[in-house]
Specification:
Layout (H helix, E strand, L loop, with lengths): L2 E4 L3 H23 L4 H24 L6 H4 L3 H8 L13 H22 L17 H36 L5 H6 L1 E4 L10 H26 L1
Antiparallel strand pairs: 1-2
Helix pairs in contact: 1-2, 2-5, 2-8, 5-6
């Protein structure tokens, strides 16, 4: 018997693809530089807004989007590696996938934060640079250009490798559920709420996060 389960609610799916678009935008504009830097900052502010939204949605979102449903300890990771993981617990992110998600969120937050403190000494400087010491600006700029960027690229490469491995090695398409929201399972599992009320809540949270980022940036640049 097969069960079609709503795993990823619409806000989580839209967050995912919006984040993909913004990260690509950041990478492209960072390579172009010059006149593209205003867009680089816009993409950075958008990523910050999305990350703040995801942090809140990790507590109020659909069942499988909540941190409580996929953040696991070392014992669960070890059981998964040995092939003894609870199938229901891995409907959303399995224990290794959860580590990848948390690492991506953490490094993106570090990259955005360091960008706010960075100065290319040509035409672009983050809004926080005027409020901190030159030593901190130099350290943040070095991290932003030489460490954080490549850490994120490595995580993206790992993410793509996992998708390919699961698609061809385990016959498990991880992309389709992030488009449709549903998974076809051989067992019953809780479904994520994806109602109009839930979507309106997500839109409200996103609007608040965007407003907070806009207000903070305007205040720092004043």
């Amino acid at each position: 018997m097969h069960h079609t389960v709503r795993v990823w609610d619409a806000p989580t799916r839209l967050f995912h693809w919006a984040l993909v678009t913004c990260v690509l935008g950041l990478l492209v504009t960072s390579q172009i530089g010059g006149a593209a830097m205003p867009w680089h900052f816009r993409f950075g502010y958008s990523v910050l807004t999305l990350l703040l939204f995801r942090l809140v949605w990790g507590f109020w979102g659909g069942h499988w989007s909540r941190f409580a449903s996929f953040v696991r300890g070392p014992r669960a990771i070890w059981r998964y590696l040995r092939g003894h993981a609870d199938a229901v617990a891995s409907v959303g992110h399995n224990p290794l996938g959860a580590l990848s998600v948390l690492a991506m969120l953490a490094f993106l937050m570090l990259q955005v934060s360091s960008g706010l403190l960075s100065d290319d000494e040509i035409s672009a400087a983050g809004p926080l640079t005027r409020h901190v010491s030159a030593a901190l600006v130099n350290a943040a700029t070095f991290y932003h250009k030489n460490i954080g960027k490549f850490a994120i690229l490595s995580l993206v490469a790992l993410h793509f490798s996992a998708i390919i491995f699961y698609a061809f090695g385990r016959r498990d398409n991880l992309v389709q559920p992030m488009i449709t929201g549903d998974k076809c399972l051989s067992f019953a599992a809780p479904a994520s709420e994806d109602s109009a009320r839930q979507r309106l809540l997500a839109l409200t949270i996103l609007g608040i996060c965007g407003a907070l980022v806009a207000i903070a940036v305007a205040w720092l640049e004043a």
